Amino acid sequence: xxxxxELMAFQRETEALGQVMxxxxxxxxxxxxxxxxxxxxxEMAALDSVLHARRTDPRIGEWLETxxxxxxxxxxxxxxxxxxxxxxxxxxxxxxxxLARTTSLAHRVWAEARAKDDxxxxxxxxxxxxxxxxxxxxxxxxxxxxxxxxxxxYEPGATGAELEAMFGALRPRLVALxxxxxxxxxxxxxxxxxxxxxxxxxxxxxxxxxxGYKLTHGRIDKAVHPFSSGSGLDVRITTRTDPKQPFDCFxxxxxxxxxxxxxQGVDQAYLLTPLGTGASMGVHESQSRxxxxxxxxxxxxxxxxxxxxxxxxxxFGVGREDFARVVNRVEPGFIRTEADEVHYNLHVLxxxxxxxxxxxxRLSVSDxxxxxxxxxxxxxxxxxxxxSNGVLQDVHWSEALxxxxxxxxxxNVYAGCLYAALRRDVPDLDDALSRGDTSLATxxxxxxxxxxxxxxxxxxxxxxxxxxxxSEGPLLDYLxxxxxxxxxx
Length: 489
Hints:
Elements: H1 3-30, H2 37-55, H3 58-66, H4 72-90, H5 93-116, H6 119-141, H7 146-154, H8 160-182, H9 197-210, E1 220-222, E2 228-231, E3 234-239, H10 246-265, H11 281-295, H12 299-313, H13 320-327, H14 341-360, H15 368-380, H16 406-425, H17 429-433, H18 439-448, H19 458-466, H20 473-486
């Protein structure tokens, strides 16, 4: 075997072990017995140590010295392996294992603290996670910006300063649109009844299939915080139900299907290679957000969904003409995952700014709830009523996902660019969506984005798909056009 072939065979086993570790994480958040948390933490730490050893194996450096790629695909595989090898070498194995062990335990502590509405219960664990995250950032940064080092894990090449400028450009038009919509003289009906869980889950499954999710290579379960897990031939999603909030279930499902469809849509020739998963979390979010919002919450698709809800639940007091407005209702709320499109990015910007302060050491864990509540009231005009609606609502910090939050808004920006190009290329889109047929859109996205996996850098994927350099303009144009029409402004 050539050096290239030996390296790829070694990498294939590493990728497979990474999938196993991901499956342990899925199990932990869905069906693992409550009393198994401490043992699972040791299992995660042990497997992380094995993966760290493989990813820093000296033979990788030797193979990289002599391996020759035959084409663009092979060259990209080598580039990604080299990037991972150089970064992983900077993080001590003990630190990596400690993070795996601590975050595994932290997830359960966070879930309990959220259920009990008690930040003090979570604070000591968060202190430990934050300390380890800073240590990792310091190892990766080589004297550079700590937050940028963590951000690069999720969006290669992005910097905090660059995103701060982009988000700064988003904020004024978002705030202006919010003020216009909130001042609209339009009264929308409220849904005052409950929707049984069985019906929600049946329709949720139908939505997953309608958006192209392949259940032969996946499954749908329930979790506190919906997520997607896996790649290739085993890609799983979760959702959640609330009898008074059926849209939370439906659109959580569609959102996670966007992630899962990306992974299922990657060219299978890339299976268990560095190209076999999404290019970045920003690109990943572009898929989940365009599935959920531009497609799933469009006037055309909601017309179809209204009919299916009538079939499943009977009359629920909202006519077809008001249904799209109800689905897209704009109002300040505490929960990011339930936020309307106008407010959503303001949630992300809050988290982005706060976690940069945490990593920089300018904000302490003990001061975090007050900092959150003050910023939230300033941005949304509402006081946080309880910690589970504030600083405890998101799972990310318990899992040391510092640098992840900004990819949500970056994904929205990418989705805005993709949607503008999709509308240009597929003039009959609304007609298909009105029949519950998303295939014109999902096949376009699979061809333009998903099949490439990690073949290109994140922004290159969006630029190749749209013919334009990614920018916030198309997203803002889309939001203004949509909500001005919905609210008759």
